[in-house]
Amino acid sequence: MPEPTLGFWAKLKRPILALAPMANVTDAAFRRMFSELGKPDVFWTEFVSIEGLLSRGREKLLPDLWFGEDEHPIVAQVFSGKPEQFERIGPFIKELGFDGIDINMGCPDSGIERSGAGAELINDPVRAKEIVRAAKLGAGDLPVSIKTRIGYGKNEIERWVPALLEEMPAVLTVHLRTRDEMSQVPAHWDKASLIVELRNEISPKTLIIGNGDAPDAETARRLASESGLDGVMIGRGAFGNPWLFSGRKPDLHERLERLMEHVELFERIYKSDRPDRIKNFDVMKKHFKAYVAGFDEAKELRVKLMETKNAADVRRVVTDFLHR
Ligand SMILES: Cc1cc2nc3c(=O)[nH]c(=O)nc-3n(C[C@H](O)[C@H](O)[C@H](O)COP(=O)(O)O)c2cc1C
Predict the structure, then answer these.
(1) Does the structure show a pLDDT above 70 at 191?
(2) Where does residue 54 rank: exposed (0-12), middle (13-18), buried (19+ CB within 10 A)?
(3) I need a labelling partner for 27 at 20 to 30 A (CA). Which of 128, 198, 263, 286 fits?
(4) How confident is the model at residue 274 (pLDDT cuts 50, 70, 90)?
């Protein structure tokens, strides 16, 4: 029986704890903070359009694929609705040094869905399967994984998950909500064991990673063992919390010091006089609330931080606060 190409995935201990792909959140600066303070077992990039990577505008998208040498293993997440584009992008992802390539089949963004990509693929399993086959052809010896949801308008695990497993991806990550549920209802962890059973029947070597609402590494390990999953992926629990995988709970002073380091790193990596290197500073604001919480005057400090425009502003505001 043919088997999936597992690549680095075969060497990881279970449960595998992964840092989720999150556009404008899990960028190279944020991942560098994790590699210093407590690494996940695997990193993902933010998602990137293959159409864009194959166009003349490629340079603009490349910053989303930057990573540091301490961020291995790292998987590049890409999206497209066109199988042939997956085949074409594989060699490029490999050349950039990634350890794996991940297909986004869960994004509910209407623009992305209109191009036949993201969660729209849940409605078109025939094309979804072609995409996996094409991605595998292009990827060569790089493992191909998929990140999806349990259905589009309703739970469709029994129709959708087997279709994907038949193509034998290395890993199937399932965000345990439907597309229409977005992130607005609790994740359906009670459905995880059914996905594991389907895997056991259809593609026993494929790894299954569950995702949705896991707030910390301890809960993630418990969820994995309760459902027989190979791993759990954490998304929003990671905002402003690069200690997530270390299990440490740093004091306020350390949190604020690291916040300043994170902002400065972001600026060093993404801001320069080259327009193709720029990411908007507002990206950092998603993290402020998490770094700055749980103490008297947190709200006051956050309000001041939300008005900052660069790393120097943040350093001034935080230093004033620490010396008040
Ligand atoms: C700001 C933000 C950006 C996201 N970007 C991506 C993305 O680029 N690719 C992807 O597959 N999922 C993306 N997601 C979904 C997450 O990877 C994850 O599936 C979802 O947040 C549920 O996990 P959580 O409850 O642990 O946050 C994003 C989520 C958020 C909140």
Answers:
(1) yes
(2) middle
(3) 128
(4) low
At 184, the amino acid letter reads: Q
One-letter amino acid of 254: E
The ranges assigned to domains in the chain are 7-238, 252-322
The alpha carbon of 112 and the centre of ligand 1 are apart by a number of angstroms equal to: 14
How buried is residue 140: exposed, middle or buried, by Cβ count under 10 Å (0-12/13-18/19+)? exposed
CATH number of the structural domain 7-238: 3.20.20.70
| Residue with CA nearest ligand 1 atom 30 | 22
Measure 104 CA to ligand 1 centroid, in angstroms. Answer: 11
Coil vs helix vs strand at 76: strand
What's the pLDDT tens digit per position in 127-158? 999 999 999 999 999 999 999 999 999 999 99
pTM above threshold 0.90: yes
pLDDT reported for residue 324: 85
Q: What angle do CA 31, 108, 166 make, to 5 degrees?
A: 85
Known catalytic residues?
A: 107
Q: Is the pLDDT confidence value at 279 over 90? A: no
